[in-house]
Specification:
143 residues; 28% strand
């Protein structure tokens, strides 16, 4: 009887060691390969104008000359459209698809449209994206 108990105790220890090794490998993979849980602070402000101003100064020195490169980008402004159920919300007002497309296409200012899905119906969402594509209106989809 004693031999059987020692054998089963060693099997339990072996299983525990294997579990610890697997847990260490999973922990390494999650943190070591960028699959972690994130560390962002999530402090977005939902402003319709997104500043994208970046200035890069790069100096490359050679034996006889110095080269400086400066890159600047412009501010990108979005038109926010929220699809909630079967409704389209633009400028805090519910509107019909045809009126929405007419407003966007008749405007002198061409902005990119940012789509926000708030439990949108699949039909309403696909109708809007189809209309935007047909009218060559650029859009991005928020998640």
């Amino acid at each position: 009887m004693k031999k059987t108990q020692k054998g089963s105790a060693s099997h339990v220890i072996l299983v525990i060691i294997l579990i610890l090794i697997i847990a260490a490998i999973i922990f390494f993979c999650l943190n070591g390969f960028g699959l972690g849980f994130g560390s962002g602070n999530g402090s977005g402000n939902n402003d319709s104008a997104v500043p994208a101003n970046v200035q890069i100064n790069e100096t490359v020195a050679t034996e006889s000359e110095s080269v400086t490169t400066t890159i600047e980008t412009e501010t990108i402004e979005y038109w926010e459209i929220t699809i909630s159920g079967n409704n389209y919300i633009f400028n805090n007002h519910q509107t019909e698809l045809e009126a929405l497309i007419e407003t966007i296409t008749s405007s002198d200012v061409k902005h990119t449209v940012r789509l926000t899905d708030e439990n949108a119906s699949q039909k309403a969402y696909s109708d809007l994206t189809k209309a935007l594509k047909e009218n060559d209106i650029q859009y991005i989809e928020e998640e």
